[in-house]
Amino acid sequence: MKFKLIIIFILITSCTQNYNQKSIKTPFNSKGFAYIYNEKDFIEKVIKKKLDNNSLEIAHNKLRPGSLIRIINLKSKKSITLKNTKRFDYPEFYKIVITEAVAKELDLSFSSPLVEIIEVKKNKSFIAAKTKIFQEEKKIHSNAPVQTVKIDNISQNQLNDKKKKPNDFFYIVIADFYSNDSAKLLKKRIITELADFNADKLIIISKKANKIRLISGPYSSVNLMKNDYIHLKNFGIEELNISINE
User: Domain with 183 in it: what CATH number?
Assistant: First the structure.
């Protein structure tokens, strides 16, 4: 009898631990460049699935379809929250795939569409039924279902490719640490094991008390940064973020 009670206790404890782990799961958050969808890339199989460039559609390679994702233009702070339309793989350098319609709402630059993406968890204060349907979307697809959940700071300007300010530089955020020694250790490993990596670009900065950041940069363009980003990913650093004017 005692043996049975012990087994039941272990099962209950195990379930409780699993429940707690799921309940405290941190929402997905990442900073980097959005991949603005184009039909040519779909035809050439760079992008595996098709999106409608005239609709507010997005795709993410980790979050399931239907997940709410807030996308923020890191330069202007304009944001839009949409349901994830599809999940498929795309070039690893990018954080999310968006259509031109989404880029227009966010007033993103085609040459440097720097964004932050945040998974939005539903709660009592969020009512999906209260969706906003915008006139631009009505004109394009009067009979199509609209994927928009919420739009903030809508821009009426046409999509443009604004020139970067002279002082706009990009940085790869490699990792944050509690101690300077840990940051130095990773920096040394990268220099030692990535022979073709420019060691002069690796910088250690103090963000605040007990937060030391290892970054790589500055980069004046996305193309100059992309190779280093790929090298660091291949090195084994799974989650890299991008920042501007660090």
Answer: 3.30.70
Residues of the chain with pLDDT under 70: 1-25, 122-167, 246
Q: Is 105 helix (H, G, I), strand (E, B) or coil?
A: helix
pLDDT in tens, 22-33: 444 678 889 999
Residue 113 within a domain: yes
Tokens at residue 187, please?
């920096």
Give per-residue pLDDT as tens, 195-225.
889 999 999 998 877 789 999 999 988 888 9
C-alpha distances in Å from residue 118, one per residue of 50, 53, 63, 135, 204 = 23, 22, 11, 26, 26
Q: Does residue 19 form part of some domain?
A: no
Residues 108, 99 contacting (CB under 8 angstroms): no
Domain interval for residue 136: 29-151
Say if residue 42 is in the same domain as residue 141: yes
Q: Are 67 and 145 members of one domain?
A: yes
Please give the tally of structural domains in the chain.
Answer: 2
CA 239 to chain centre: 10
Q: Which residue has the tokens 């990596």?
A: 197
Q: Do the domain assignments include residue 6?
A: no
For residue 36, the surrounding DSSP H or E stretch is strand 29-36
